[in-house]
Amino acid sequence: MEEKFNSFFQPQRQSKTGIVLLFLYNIGMVIKNLWVLIVLFFVKKEKVESWMIIVAIVAALLILIVSAVLQYFHFKYYIDEENEEFVIHEGIINTSVTKIKKKNIQEVNISQPFIHRFFNIYKLEIDTPGSSEKEVKISALTKQNAIDLKKYLLTETNVEYSIEKTDDIVLNEEIKDLRSIKISTFSILKYGITANYVRSFLAMVSLLIYGFSELANLLKKVEFDTQLDYDTVEERFLAFSIPVILGIILVVIIIGIIVNAVRTIIKFFNFKITENNQSFSFEYGLFNTRNSIVNKSKVQIITETQNWIQKKMKISYVKFLQIGKNEEEDEKNVAAVPGINNEEKSKLISTIWKENPVFENFLKPNFRLIIVNTFQFIIIPLLLFLIIEKDLLINYWFLAVVYIVLVKICILISFRNLRLFYNERFIRLKSGIWDIDNRTFEVEKLQTVKISQYFWQRKTNLGSITFYTSAGRFRIVALNFTKLKKLLNYCIYKIETN
C-alpha cells in the first residue's frame, strides 16, 4: 500500500498498470500511422499465406510489449530539492532528461481519459510559459500521487518542507475553500447549440472532402477506376433548384449544430469550479475527466465572448489567458468556462481582480476605418478577380453583388462594435461581428504600450495603439491620436511605478 503522501525527492516510476497503458498507446500509434497499409493488407489478404499473417501479428505484439516494458522502466521522475527543479528521465535508445524550474511551472493539470478509467489511473500534465504544448506528461499515476505531486509543484513556498508540512497545506486548503460553482448541463447545452456552428459546418465539409480524397487514394491502390468528371458533378449539382440546394445546406448546418452540442456536453459535462486561497480549479468531462488549476496572480487577460442569442439566454464563454498563453492556442491548452451565466461570471471575475471592472471612458474608431476596410475587403478582391477571371465575374455578377452586400454588412457591424474602454485600473477591447469579444486586462500587468501614426493620418489626428502583455499583443486603429497620447502616458506611468 502506498504512503498517503509521497515526497517525490527520490527517482520513481509510474504506476505498474502504466505498462498496459503504454502497450495500448503503442498499438494506437501503429494503427494511426499505418491504417492505410492495414486496410490494404486485409483487402488483399487472399494473396498472403495464413501463417505469415499469424507470424506478423505475433511479432508485432511482442515488439510492442517489449517496447512498453522498456518505456516503463526507463521513465523516472523526481524533484531536485537542491536546485528546485522537476526532473524527467525518459527514452529507450535516445534517452533524454527534462528539467523544469519549479518557479516556472504555470499549470499542473490532472485528467482521467476514458481508457485510464479502466485501470483507475490518472494523467498529469505540466505546463510552463512560452509553449503551446505541454512540457511534461506523466501518463500513469495513482490519484493520490497525482494530487500530491500537483500540490508540491504549485505551492508558493520552497520545496524544502517535510511531509508533515504538506499535511498542513492540504488541511489549510480544505479549510480555505471559499466557494464552488457548478455549470449546469442545460447551460452547457445552450452554449453548445449557440456556439461554433460555423466552425462545425466547415469541419464537416472538410471531413467529407478528406474522406472522399482518402477513399479515392485507397481505391486507386487496389486498382479501382476512380476517375471523376468534375464538370459533370458540378453540372448535376447546379441542376437542382435553389431551394433544394439551400435545404441541403440547412440540413448540414443543423447536423453540425447537433454534433457540436453533443461534443460540447461530452467535453464539459459536470463542470465544477472550486475556489481556493491562491487559485481556482476546473474539473469537467464525461469520458475524459480533466482537472486544471489556474493561479489568480498569473491571469493576464480575461476574455468574455457572447453573441446575440447567448445574450438573450444570459450565458457567455469566459477564457482566462495566463503568462505565456495566447488566443491562437488550442482550446485544450487554455482555461475557459462555457455557458456561464452573468451572476456566476461576476463572482468568478471578482475572485481574481477583487472587483468587476466598470468603464465610463471609451474611444471609438473614426468613420474613415469603414472606407479603408471597404477598399481592402471589397474593391481590391473584386479588381483582382476582374483581372484574372473577367468572364466568370460577368457571368456570375449576382454572386459578386451578394458578396459585396454581406461583406459591407460585416464591415459596418464590426465598426459599430469596435471600442476601447479604460479606467484607472483596467483596459478593455471590444470587437467582433457575431461573437463579440471583450478582452480585459490590468494596466499594471502590461509589458509595454506603443502608439503609431502614418503620415497621411496627421491631418485627421488619427493613430493606432498596441498593448503588449505576456499573453499576447492587441491592437486597435483609427482612434483620436491626442487621447491616445494621454492614455499612453498614463499606462507607462502605471507600469513604471508598479
TrEMBL record:
Q: Which residues form the YdbS-like PH domain?
A: 72-153, 269-348, 416-491
Bilayer-crossing regions? 20-44, 50-73, 188-212, 237-262, 369-388, 394-415
Would the keyword Chaperone turn up in this protein's UniProt record? no
Keyword hit for Nuclease? no
Q: Which residues form the signal peptide?
A: none
Please provide the record's keywords in A-Z order. Answer: Membrane, Transmembrane, Transmembrane helix
Q: Indicate what this protein is called per its UniProt record.
A: YdbS-like PH domain-containing protein
